Amino acid sequence: MGNCWCKWEPTIYKNPKSESPKEQERERREGSKLPSNPEEVEDLRGGDSAANPLIAFTFEELKIITANFRQDRVLGGGGFGNVYKGFIPEDLREGLQIQPLPLPVAVKVHDGDNSYQGHREWLAEVIFLGQLSHPNLVKLIGYCCQDDHRVLIYEYMPRGSVENNLFSSKYVLFSSLKPTSSMQCHYRNLAKRPEKKYHFD
């Protein structure tokens, strides 16, 4: 799973000279409050006018999807937290607009870091990846914003991570670049010689 990072911070524009420093700090804290429920997340995404509709899952539904976050379902992990493989069953919720069911998904669970920065990164993924739709991008299906739980639900891609596919030994892409860098070294050494006669056959 790739990560999308951005710096996003709500801003309140007021005349700073009209308020005391205490009032300015209080305004800054209140103006940068992060959403604590799906309704607030959808307001930030633009509500019904959002490009791609996302499903707001409950944490109880995610326990069903991931079989209670079983360790044998862990696909990987990173700075954000663990990623679990799960399946959205047909009987999860009435009126769920996802086809086909059961649908395999990747569930990216925030590691419980309740820092302001961690929540901002989660929110940035919801807002920006929720707007994108492209055949070469993994689709964000939904999210969970309940109590302290911050979770993202993506479509599942079965062929492993991008990192493993790019850097595994079965691909020779990066090993084929070694002769090129070797030739660059030799060219630099030749260029340093006093008499410069080159023959590139």
UniProtKB/TrEMBL annotation:
<feature type="compositionally biased region" description="Basic and acidic residues">
    <location>
        <begin position="16"/>
        <end position="32"/>
    </location>
</feature>
<keyword id="KW-0547">Nucleotide-binding</keyword>
<dbReference type="InterPro" id="IPR050823">
    <property type="entry name" value="Plant_Ser_Thr_Prot_Kinase"/>
</dbReference>
<keyword id="KW-0067">ATP-binding</keyword>
<keyword id="KW-0418">Kinase</keyword>
<dbReference type="GO" id="GO:0004674">
    <property type="term" value="F:protein serine/threonine kinase activity"/>
</dbReference>
<protein>
    <recommendedName>
        <fullName>non-specific serine/threonine protein kinase</fullName>
        <ecNumber>2.7.11.1</ecNumber>
    </recommendedName>
</protein>
<keyword id="KW-0472">Membrane</keyword>
<dbReference type="GO" id="GO:0005886">
    <property type="term" value="C:plasma membrane"/>
</dbReference>
<keyword id="KW-0808">Transferase</keyword>
<dbReference type="Pfam" id="PF07714">
    <property type="entry name" value="PK_Tyr_Ser-Thr"/>
</dbReference>
<feature type="domain" description="Protein kinase">
    <location>
        <begin position="69"/>
        <end position="201"/>
    </location>
</feature>
<dbReference type="GO" id="GO:0005524">
    <property type="term" value="F:ATP binding"/>
</dbReference>
<feature type="binding site">
    <location>
        <position position="108"/>
    </location>
    <ligand>
        <name>ATP</name>
    </ligand>
</feature>
<dbReference type="InterPro" id="IPR001245">
    <property type="entry name" value="Ser-Thr/Tyr_kinase_cat_dom"/>
</dbReference>
<dbReference type="InterPro" id="IPR017441">
    <property type="entry name" value="Protein_kinase_ATP_BS"/>
</dbReference>
<dbReference type="InterPro" id="IPR000719">
    <property type="entry name" value="Prot_kinase_dom"/>
</dbReference>
<dbReference type="InterPro" id="IPR011009">
    <property type="entry name" value="Kinase-like_dom_sf"/>
</dbReference>
<feature type="region of interest" description="Disordered">
    <location>
        <begin position="1"/>
        <end position="47"/>
    </location>
</feature>
<keyword id="KW-1003">Cell membrane</keyword>
